[in-house]
């Protein structure tokens, strides 16, 4: 008998260790032996069989209950040889495990069918626990009645939908959602397990991370394994293209407009696609960014839940970015079985506020009602003064205003064609243009090779290095360019001076294109047909802007920052954001007390204040149409190097033809040429050029015209920054650093990734609004 007992115990332990080793049937002799052994069990063993704890270390469930109730002999809340743990409060018994896992049981076919779908779409293991979590756990839903908000468990057969989650009330009969079982259903107590979900340790006891069903992010992420981006592989919305490799599938997806997201603007691409090159303002849906890991370190080991919610929030925002995205608008889109849905809803709010603060969502010209704020009350107890109201200042002001701290815009896609027209009216042979463009880019490639092992102290002017490489090429190759080819090369040099905002003799050869090492914006070049003022006017709506108060002094020596204007008016706030142009900082237009750190002053002076000017002309009709044949811009080949940059490119600012407007730029040394001319003299020079380019026809006088004077405007004095010879792109990062958590800086000259652009200025404002809100 003792031997029999030992064997019985071995068989019992084998159940715990490997359910697959269980025999499918027993002989009569074995049945008799088991009966004899049972009769010999003492009282303690009999008592133990009535009840068994969960074997998961740290599980708080003192008396587990099987949620599955699938097997006829389901243990319910009684004895089972093993409890399978999914979370503290969610277990299934060994009998229900066998019901789905054993091939002779009725539930086996359902499990294997699910397993086939999971395996074909997903990457994670299709285990029995994953099956139970994905298919058998009951859904939980929150009462939407404001005075209630209690969580209720739905019966097993009910499939939760976004509509049910949006409208659910306690006691609602889901077969007929217009009726309830009684008016006092909200008075029923909430399940005790709900309170545990909020505890910090609860998530660590979760066996499997939540995978959302029917996520709004699914159309954006069809090229990814769904379980790698927080979505369930069992949903039809996440089905991958079977029988195709990832590369083939990605090419198929690229050919689909807007990644199959109905109604989405094609320029909205919030996520990287697999194996895609860097793009600005995109996130990898399968990886947490560094700032996300810093904010949410608890997800560093397994980021699945965070990725699921972040991707969902981003997708919801990009699907409708005209309205503020609130936690209430996200909650009913979180579809996942089990108590973990409660935790997902709680975490979603944290993630949404983080993404709002970072400017990933709820940003731009979003209109927010006066009684609505995008961040909770703990962010509201700050006062901020913003010096400057350009794109950076307005962006920061709009963000902070929407945080609670005291538009459909049409775009025209620009084509690539740019005919180069010589004075005299002849269009340059495109092959000549292509040839000189190739040589020009080859010169820049040599500059890139030269600078690889050069330090800041070995830097030279870009113009000097280009001339040196050009002369060496002519000498070594023996090639002689024609007079026209030399002029076309001058045109390309003027374009480079336009990009830098300066004569190339001042620009760093080592760091002139430092921002190209970072991910840049993808997609088409486009024109805001209504002009940037539409965006700026919208940003300014609802913001307290005080005009004609030039700031001359900022004193941050005390607890509050004191801002003094030229008329002696003083203002005080906890934080001050400075968004004035770089050149005003270089000229000490604003005095700081105490003085700015030496490191920041050195960075300020390490950048150049670039200057360009523009002229816009409105004509009575579009005289240029017949010659340029629908192109969005055309180039002016300079007659000699001394006129390089003088009206080098003309842009059609009204492609619809309603107003007939051309705009041209003045760059490089040509800026000084027109500096002392009055507007009419500048117009006369521009019209002389246009009449040379269209010599074969009559060019009418403009109806209206406008000449910028950015270099002479006392509050501007520049166009955009560049890295001076001997400087470094690091200066942009140093300029962006705050001083003592009191003085903050924004503007294009503080954005290392996107300098020289209105976009860069705007994003710097959003960046600083995020920093100020977090302090």
Pick out its properties.
35% helix, Arc Repressor Mutant, subunit A, six-stranded mixed sheet, elongated, alpha+beta
Low-confidence stretches: 1-48, 241-260
Largest sheet: 6 strands, mixed
- How many runs of DSSP E, i.e. beta strands? 21
What is the number of helical segments per DSSP (H or I, 4+ residues)? 25
Characterization of the model:
By secondary structure, the protein is α+β, with helices and mostly antiparallel strands. Among the domains are: 53-137, no CATH class; 142-174 and 186-240 and 259-362, Winged helix-like DNA-binding domain superfamily/Winged helix DNA-binding domain (Arc Repressor Mutant, subunit A). Helices cover 35% and strands 12% of the residues. It contains 25 helices and 21 strands. Helix 11 crosses helix 13 and helix 20 (598-605) crosses helix 24. The longest helix has 21 residues, at 430-450. The relative contact order is 0.08. The model is unreliable at 1-48 and 241-260 (pLDDT under 50). It is found in: Chromosome; Nucleus. Pfam families: Amino_oxidase, SWIRM, zf-CW. Residues 1-12 have a biased composition (Basic residues).
Task: Give a quick precis of the structure.
The protein has 775 residues and is α+β, with helices and mostly antiparallel strands.
Indicate the topology.
Elements: H1 2-17, H2 28-40, H3 43-49, E1 83-87, E2 90-93, H4 94-101, H5 108-121, H6 128-136, E3 140-142, E4 151-153, H7 162-167, H8 192-197, H9 246-254, H10 290-295, H11 304-319, H12 327-331, H13 340-358, E5 384-387, H14 391-403, E6 411-413, E7 418-422, H15 430-450, H16 462-477, H17 483-500, E8 526-528, H18 532-540, E9 551-555, E10 561-565, E11 570-573, E12 575-578, H19 582-586, E13 591-593, H20 598-605, E14 607-610, E15 613-618, H21 625-628, E16 633-637, E17 646-652, E18 661-666, H22 670-675, H23 679-693, E19 704-707, E20 720-723, H24 730-736, E21 743-745, H25 758-774
Parallel strand pairs: 5-12, 7-16, 9-13, 12-21
Antiparallel strand pairs: 1-2, 3-4, 6-8, 9-10, 10-11, 14-20, 15-18, 15-19, 16-17, 17-18
Helix pairs in contact: 11-13, 14-25, 15-16, 15-17, 20-24
């Amino acid at each position: 008998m003792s031997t029999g007992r030992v064997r019985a115990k071995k068989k019992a332990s084998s159940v715990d260790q490997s359910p697959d080793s269980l025999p499918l049937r027993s002989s009569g002799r074995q049945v008799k032996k088991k009966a004899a052994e049972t009769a010999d069990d003492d009282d303690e063993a009999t008592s133990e069989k009535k009840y068994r704890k969960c074997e998961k270390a740290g599980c708080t469930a003192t008396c587990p209950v099987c949620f599955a109730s699938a097997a006829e002999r389901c243990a319910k809340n009684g004895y089972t040889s093993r409890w399978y743990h999914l979370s503290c409060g969610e277990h299934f018994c060994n009998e229900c495990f066998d019901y789905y896992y054993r091939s002779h049981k009725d539930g086996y076919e359902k499990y294997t069918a699910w397993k086939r779908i999971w395996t074909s779409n997903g990457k994670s293991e299709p285990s029995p626990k994953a099956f139970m979590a994905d298919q058998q756990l009951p859904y939980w839903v929150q009462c939407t009645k404001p005075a209630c908000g209690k969580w209720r468990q739905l019966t097993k057969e009910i499939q939760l939908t976004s509509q049910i989650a949006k409208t659910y009330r306690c006691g609602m009969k889901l077969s007929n959602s217009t009726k309830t079982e009684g008016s006092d259903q909200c008075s029923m107590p909430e399940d005790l397990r709900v309170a545990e979900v909020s505890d910090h340790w609860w998530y660590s006891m979760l066996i499997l991370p939540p995978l959302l069903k029917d996520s709004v992010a699914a159309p954006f992420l069809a090229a990814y394994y769904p379980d790698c981006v927080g979505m369930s592989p069992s949903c039809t919305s996440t089905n991958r293209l079977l029988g195709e490799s990832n590369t083939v599938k990605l090419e198929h997806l690229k050919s689909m407009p807007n990644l199959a997201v109905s109604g989405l603007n094609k320029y909205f691409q919030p996520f990287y696609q697999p194996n895609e090159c860097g793009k600005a303002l995109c996130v990898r849906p399968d990886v947490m960014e560094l700032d996300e890991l810093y904010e949410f370190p608890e997800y560093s080991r397994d980021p699945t839940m965070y990725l699921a919610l972040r991707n969902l929030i981003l997708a919801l925002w990009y699907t409708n970015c005209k309205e503020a995205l609130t936690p209430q608008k996200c909650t009913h889109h979180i579809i996942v079985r089990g108590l973990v849905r409660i935790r997902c809803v709680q975490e979603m709010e944290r993630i949404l506020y983080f993404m709002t603060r970072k400017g990933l969502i709820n940003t731009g010209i979003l209109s927010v009602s006066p009684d609505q704020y995008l961040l909770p009350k703990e962010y509201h107890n700050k006062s901020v003064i913003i010096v400057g109201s350009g794109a950076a200042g307005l962006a920061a002001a709009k963000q902070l205003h929407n945080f609670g701290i005291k538009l459909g815009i049409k775009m025209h896609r620009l084509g690539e064609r740019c005919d180069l027209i010589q004075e005299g009216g002849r269009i340059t042979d495109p092959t000549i243009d292509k040839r000189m463009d190739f040589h020009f880019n080859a010169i820049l490639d040599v500059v890139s090779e030269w600078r690889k092992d050069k330090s800041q102290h070995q830097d030279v002017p870009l113009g000097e290095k280009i001339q040196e490489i050009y002369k060496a090429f002519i000498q070594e190759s023996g090639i002689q360019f024609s007079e026209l080819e030399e002029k076309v090369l001058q045109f390309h040099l003027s374009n480079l001076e336009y990009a830098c905002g300066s004569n190339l003799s001042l620009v760093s050869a080592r760091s002139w294109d430092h921002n190209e090492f970072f991910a840049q914006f993808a997609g088409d070049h486009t024109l805001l047909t209504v002009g940037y003022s539409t965006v700026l006017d919208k940003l300014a709506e609802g913001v307290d802007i005080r005009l004609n108060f030039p700031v001359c002094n900022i004193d941050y020596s005390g607890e509050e920052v004191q801002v003094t204007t030229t008329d002696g008016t003083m203002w005080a706030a906890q934080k001050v954001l400075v968004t004035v142009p770089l050149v005003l900082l270089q000229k000490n237009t604003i005095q700081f007390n105490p003085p700015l750190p030496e490191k920041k002053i050195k960075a300020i002076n390490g950048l150049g204040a670039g200057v360009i000017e523009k002229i816009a002309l409105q004509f009575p009709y579009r005289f240029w149409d017949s010659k340029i044949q629908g192109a969005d811009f055309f180039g002016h080949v300079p007659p000699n190097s001394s006129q390089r940059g003088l009206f080098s490119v003309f842009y059609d600012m009204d492609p619809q033809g309603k107003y007939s407007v051309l705009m041209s730029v003045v760059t490089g040394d040509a800026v000084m040429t027109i500096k002392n001319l009055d507007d009419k003299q500048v117009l006369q020079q521009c019209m002389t050029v246009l009449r040379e380019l269209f010599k074969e026809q009559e060019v009418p006088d403009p109806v209206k015209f406008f000449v910028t004077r950015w270099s002479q405007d006392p509050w501007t004095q520049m166009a955009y920054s560049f890295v001076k010879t001997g400087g470094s792109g690091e200066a942009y990062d140093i300029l962006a650093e705050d001083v003592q958590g009191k003085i903050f800086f924004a503007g294009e000259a503080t954005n290392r990734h996107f300098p020289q652009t209105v976009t860069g200025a705007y994003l710097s404002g959003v960046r600083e609004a995020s920093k100020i809100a977090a302090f």
